[in-house]
Amino acid sequence: MAYALPALPYAFDALEPYIDAQTMEIHHGRHHQAYVNNANAALERHPSLAEKSVEELLSDLNALPEDVRTALRNNAGGHLNHTLFWSMMGPNKGGEPTGDLAQAINGAFGDFATFKTQFKAAAAGRFGSGWGWLSFSTEGRLVIESTANQDTPLSHGNKPLLGVDVWEHAYYLKYQNKRPDYLEAFFSVIHWDRVAELFDAAKG
Questions:
Q1: How far apart are the first and last CA of the chain?
Q2: Does the predicted model carry a pTM greater than 0.90?
Q3: Is residue 16 part of a domain?
Q4: Residue ranges of the alpha helices (H) in 156-191?
Q5: Which conformational region is residue 33 in: left (phi greater than 0), alpha (psi within -120 to 50 degrees), or beta?
Q6: Bond from prior residue into 17 cis (ω within 30 degrees of 0)
Q7: Per the CB 3.0–4.6 Å rule, which of 4, 95, 130, 162 could disulfide with 126?
Q8: Beta bridge partners of 130
């Protein structure tokens, strides 16, 4: 098996009251597990692909065999995005970033409040299912973007630093159709130290 479901780094109820335990349990144990299972099934048809990391696979979709390209785009993408998502959150987190990341956000967007407004707008405005992202672009700057379904910024050359899942399964049990309320709550659980690590790695 090329991929395995990573354990959550905290309990299912650790993000309460912002993200409820039932959503976390279903989201991690069923949805993420399904992406892992389906990605592994696709890799069985081309075992040599299992030697590559999920990041390598998704960074060059056109190089994937046509018969599994869509399956891997959707399911390896779901595996990668969710693995990042769990690590970008944590109990007793939130607040604002510090250090180089804070300076970069202020430089790119003016201040943290403006960044937050623009990030939430990008995620709220994604039609249907997808993700909102803070990414490090190929030009070496911070950008806000959104992707459809389980697409990742890696597939067009950007490096994801912070992502929020806006598929309905990520929030509907608690927030129903109120996606903006979920996005506001998300800012109370962001693990900014983890985002800063990804930023430092992206800069090289």
A1: 31
A2: yes
A3: no
A4: 172-175, 179-186
A5: alpha
A6: yes
A7: 130
A8: 148
Q: What is the pLDDT of residues 160-174, one digit of tens each?
A: 999 999 999 999 999
The answer to whether residue 63 sits within a structural domain is yes
| 149: its two tokens | 């379904």
Does residue 150 sit in the same domain as residue 121?
Answer: yes
Q: 155: alpha, beta or left, given left = phi > 0 and alpha = psi -120 to 50?
A: alpha
Phi, psi values for residue 23, rounded to 5°: -60, -45
CATH number for the domain spanning 74: value is: 1.10.287.990
3-state SS class at 110: coil
The helix/strand/coil state of 3 is coil
Note down the domain range covering 81.
21-87
DSSP state of 190: B
- List, for residues 19-69, the tens digit of each pLDDT value: 999 999 999 999 999 999 999 999 999 999 999 999 999 999 999 999 999
Tell me how long the chain is.
204
